[in-house]
């Protein structure tokens, strides 16, 4: 059977379209390539962005901001020493960009000016720490991207 150039072009188009369809279907079906939104309530969090900016601005006016340090037991978040412990309230949220199943949140309960996030809750890699806290009615926000 003799194939002329017109038949060759049609066959090339058919193979090319089949090749592209194979990759499109495999990318949509394969769980390895599945990507979710960064957070579930993305639009609600975007509406709270201005509030977060005000909280961060409040935190900039503090004499001392929250600091973090890695220790063998986990991560220690140190709150300002000049504040009374009983008046500090809020939440700590740890977000793992690569796997939303590892995200967790905990309430702030201090016995001294340090809060320990246990090592068993953390896997090696990148984490985003967000501490949303208040003291004497003033709202503060601390954000930090770390590699654990």
How are the elements arranged and paired?
Elements: H1 5-29, H2 42-47, H3 49-60, E1 67-71, E2 74-78, E3 88-95, E4 104-107, E5 114-118, E6 126-135, E7 138-147
Antiparallel strand pairs: 1-2, 2-5, 3-4, 3-6, 6-7
Mean pLDDT, all residues: 86
Return the CATH topology of the largest domain. Answer: Immunoglobulin-like
The description of the largest β-sheet is: 4 strands, antiparallel
Rg measurement, Å: 25 Å
Strand content: 25-35%
Organism: Gelidibacter pelagius
Transmembrane segments: 6-25
Keywords: Membrane, Transmembrane, Transmembrane helix
Protein name: FixH family protein
Task: Describe the structure in your own words.
It is a single chain. The chain has helices spanning 5-29, 42-47, 49-60; strands at 67-71, 74-78, 88-95, 104-107, 114-118, 126-135, 138-147. By secondary structure, the protein is of the alpha+beta class. 29% of the residues lie in helices and 32% in strands. The chain contains 3 helices and 7 strands; from the N terminus they run αααβββββββ. The termini are far apart. It has a 4-stranded antiparallel β-sheet. The protein has a 3-stranded antiparallel β-sheet with strand order 1-2-5, with no helix packed on it.
Quick structural gist:
The protein has 148 residues and is α+β, with helices and mostly antiparallel strands. It has helices at 5-29, 42-47, 49-60; strands spanning 67-71, 74-78, 88-95, 104-107, 114-118, 126-135, 138-147.
Main attributes?
148 residues; alpha+beta; four-stranded antiparallel beta sheet; three-stranded antiparallel beta sheet
């Amino acid at each position: 059977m003799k194939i002329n150039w017109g038949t060759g072009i049609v066959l090339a188009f058919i193979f090319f379209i089949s090749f592209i369809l194979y990759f499109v279907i495999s990318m949509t079906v394969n769980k390895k390539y599945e990507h979710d939104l960064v957070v579930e309530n993305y639009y609600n969090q975007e509406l709270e962005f201005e509030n977060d900016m005000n909280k961060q601005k409040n935190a900039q006016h503090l004499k001392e901001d929250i600091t973090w340090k890695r220790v063998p037991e986990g991560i220690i978040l140190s709150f300002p020493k000049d504040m009374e412990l009983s008046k500090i309230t809020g939440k700590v949220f740890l977000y793992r960009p690569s796997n939303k199943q590892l995200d967790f949140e905990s309430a702030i309960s201090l016995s001294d000016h340090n809060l320990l996030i246990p090592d068993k809750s953390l896997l090696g890699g990148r984490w985003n720490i967000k501490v949303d806290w208040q003291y004497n009615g003033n709202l503060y926000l601390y954000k930090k991207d770390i590699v654990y």
